[in-house]
Structure formats: structure tokens, C-alpha cells
Amino acid sequence: MGHHESNYEPKWGIAKWFDERLPVARMVSDQFIVFPTPRNLNYWWTMGMVLFFFLVIQLITGIILTMHYIPHEAMAFNSVEHIMRDVNWGWLLRNMHSNGASFFFIAVYIHILRGIYYGSYKAPREVLWIVGIIIYILMMAAAFMGYVLPWGQMSFWEATVITNLFSAIPLVGDFITHWFWGAYAVSQPTLNRFLSLHYLVPMILVAFVFIHIWALHVVGSNNPEGLAVKSSDDTLPFHPYFTMKDMFMAIVFLTIYAFFVFYMGNYMGHPDNFIRANPLVTPAHIVPEWYFLPFYAVLRAIPDKLGGVVAMFGSILVVAALPWLDRNPIRSLRYRPWARFFFAGFVATAVLLGFLGSKPAEGWYVHASRVLTAYWFIYFLVIVPIMSKIETKNRRMPGSITDSVLGRHGVIPEGATSAPAKQ
Amino acid sequence: MTATIDDHQEGSTRRNFLYIGTGAFAAVGVGCVIWPFVDQMNPDASQKALASIEVDIAPVQVGQAITVLWRGKPVFIRHRTQAEIDEANKVDITSLRDPQKDTERVKKAEWLIMVGICTHLGCVPSGQKTGDEKGEYNGWFCPCHGSQYDTSGRIRKGPAPRNLDVPEYKFLTDTLVKIG
Questions:
Q1: Residue B133: pLDDT above 50?
Q2: ipTM > 0.85?
Q3: Which residues in chain B have Cβ-Cβ distances shorter than 8 Å to A92?
Q4: d(Cα A287, Cα A297) in Å, to the nearest integer?
Q5: What's the rounded Cα separation, in Å, for the pair B79 and B60?
Q6: Which of A281, B88, B140, B150 could lock onto B125 through a cystine, CB 3.0 to 4.6 A?
Q7: Where are the domains of chain A?
């Protein structure tokens, strides 16, 4: 992987024997212990490990929940209550899984925003970026199907609304929608296949995470200065410096997560999902889970059915296209003050769209959604390419990572020692 | 970090203590995390609620038997005739594969309560209904491999290693039995 020499030397006979046949220990050592990592990484870089934790938590709690859940229209809702009330520790497992999904998304949004701010999508990390977007889309698919399983009112109606999007496709829309449902409306066949696919998608996701880490390790991590690694002085071994930094952040994150799991298990959910699904009664306000709200706002902002669908998917595609929209030679927004200003506007837009997605599509909410949706696309398709051509030099940029760590602009302050502690 | 000689003497004991302390704490923590994931597979509250059943045996006439479902298994409840009780008591214990006196297997002699699963490989023996094949010992006969049980449910002939199991039970009243 990459162009680093492997210095791993097995100490015991059996380790050497195994290393000659399947070099797993060597891979772990090279990729996660000695791996040279830029020494100036800040806490925004810890989300990768946090995401991995939550993937594992979701996988384990999910597999266990499937031991007790019943994917039948007449029994699904009851089986979830059975899990909450009868199954040993069922309440804990269910709360871990539902809040785990939310925290998975909190972490991924921080992770993506870090990537945009520090230019981690730029060459040579374009493939890494695309793989990341694919993982994000898989996460959304898994979360969507998972939310249907408890078969409450929100589960059912969210499934109906979102799967009806397929019917917007010209000519084959209805055919595809009925094929997907397995029926003429969301019903038993849909529920059954959603459990199967909800179990499958995370497995595909794990494969893409492996590819994601592989792609990252070929080129190495970006860093807050956006500077390339010039020498080994610019780096530190991943263990113990970044394993410990990651562990610390993971513990902080898990503590907040635990607070939700134990004290506010239903806070991020919707009370209407405690009503059994009723195909004859639509709730007054259908609202998806919070992590989908910005896209829901975009969908409803466009008055045309197909147009709304195209805009919703388009809003993710423009993010995927960033490496080609922005080719400014300066990577990190730290050194691009105007671009940073517009980026702040983008973050505010995303948050506001989220808020609007939770509101009914009436009055000034609709106007605001349209303005903000317009800004989203203008930011990526107009502002970013324009900014890419201006602000291309910044005299305040340090010469190297080591320079930036030891003192700004290459000036070493008095008393600073020359080299960092290394193992 | 370069260590001085002083560091090495004191530092290593303190460091060892911290390592071992943290390790112990982490091990306890891991145990606490793992336990719920393991325990969730144990029988849950709805299963435990069915762990005991109460059976009204008043309608069971002398010479009649009923089968009830307990913990997913059949339980034979037979209201034995005096003849059957005497037959059970007359048997020479030392000749039995699984020696047990009839009085060890019942609380009230006329009520025989046993798990109706052959101790060989798990089939349900016949003998509960009149007209059923009961085997040479007038008890129960397992059609799968030919095990034969007597009027006390003890194995007399055939491959089964043990007498039919007697579950934990209690007479709440003369006509109400709580099994399990």
C-alpha cells in the first residue's frame, strides 16, 4: 500500500511463520501503528475513528435486534415493544441502535464539513472523496429502511412518500415503484424486503469503508494547513499520537451518546411513530429523521414533482463534484478568507434548510426553502468555481508542516526545542 | 521522552501501577459492556412468564390422562388407578436400568406427572389415550426406537437411558397443580 517501506519485524517464531503466509500483523503495524501521519492534525480529524466505532455499534446492536424483531405487518410494532419491555436489556439495545444512527450522522456531517473546509477532496484525494460520498449514500439508504421497520405512522408514511419518488421517473416510474414495493402500496412485501436490505446495506458499507481507508493510505492524510508532507519530520507515527487523540474524542462522543441512550432515548425521534401504521390515515405533518431534513426541504422547494427529485439528488451530486469544481492550489480555507466567508454561508444554509425541512410546506417557509436551495446550487456551481480562480496565493502560508507547528511563517520562537518526541 | 535514572527507579513502579490499574478498570468496563449483549439471548420476560403453569386437574377421571404444554414441552398428567399404583410398587428396583422407587417419583400416588419426552432421542411416547399402544409394561411406548415405560414412567425395555423426567411441581390445592 502506498510507497512506504515495511519495517515490521516479527519477534517470535510463530509470528514469523504466519507473516510469511498471511501478513496480517505486518499490515496492522504498517497501516495503523507506524503509519506516518501529519503531526499538525487537529480534533476535526478524529471523526474517522468515531465513525468506525459507530459502524461497529450499529452492526452489533442491529444483528442482535434482528434476533427479536418480527418483520410482519401485524407483529412488527408489537415486536419492537416486546424488545423494549420483555427482552433482557432490549431497551438498551434498541436505544443504542436508534441513537447510534443519529450519532453516526452527526459524526459524518462533521467529517464531511472538515473535508470541505480543509480541501481534503482535492487532488490526489478525488477517489477518496467519491468513495466517501458513496458511503454517505449507503448510510442514508440503510437509515431510511431501518426507520420503516418499527412500522409506526412515521415509518409507514415516510416509506410511502420517499418510495413514491420513483414514480416521478418518466415512462417506467410506476413499474419501478411497484417492483420496489412488491405490491401496489407499501405493505407486507415491502416491510420484509426492507429488513433484508437493511441487513445487507451495512455489509456493502463495510466493504466501501475498507476501500476508503485504502484510498486514504495510498496518498496519506491531509492536514489543517493543507500543505503536503515534505519530510518525515512533518509526520508522527499513528500510534500512540493519533490513536490516543482518536480514543479521547471517541470517549467524549460516546459519553454524549450515552447520555442520549440512557436519558433521552426518544428525543431525536418523532412521537407519531408510537402510533401503529395506518394506511388509511396520513399524519398531519410527515417529517423524516433529522439527518434527512435539509434534503427534504430541497425536495419540497421545487414545485415540480420530477424537478424536486432531481434537485434533491443533485444537491448531493454537486458535493461529489467538488474536486472538479474547485481547483484552487491552496487547499485549506484557513488561507482563503473570502472562500471561507462563502463556506460559512453554505453551512448556515444547510442548517437552515434542516430547520425548514421540519416545518410544513406553507407560507414563508416555502419561499425561504427556495432561496436557500438556490444558494446551495449557486455556492457549488458558481461561487466555488469562481473562488477557485481568485485568491490563489497567500503570503502568510508557512513553508512546511514543521514550520507551522514550530512557529508561524517559519520563524522559530525562543526556547522551542528542535525535534518532537518520537518512538 | 528520554528517561533519567531517577525516573526509571520510581517512574517504572508508578507507571506499572497506572498501567495495571487502567487495565483492570478497562477489563471491568469491557465486561460490563459485553454482559447485556450476551444476556439478551437468555429467555426474556415473556418466556419466563410462561415458565410456570397452573393446571386444573379436577376434570381428570381415574384412569384418564391429559397432556399439557409447559415450556414448549408436553407434560403427561395421569390419574392412576389403584391397580397401576400397585403394579408400580411391586417392581424390584435393582432390576431397573434407572433405579427409582415409585414413591420417589410422585407426591400423591394417584397423580403421575412427567415430561412426555422419551429420554432416548426426544420423541413423544404413546400411551396417553385409551386404545394407544402402551407396551408390555402397561405404561408408555415410544414408536421411534421401541423404548417401553411402566406405570411409573420408568424405562424397562428399549434404548432409553433414563426414566421419564419428573418436572418440579407443587399442589396448590387438591385439584390445582403448579408445574415449574
A1: yes
A2: no
A3: 36
A4: 10
A5: 7
A6: B140
A7: 25-286, 299-391, 393-423
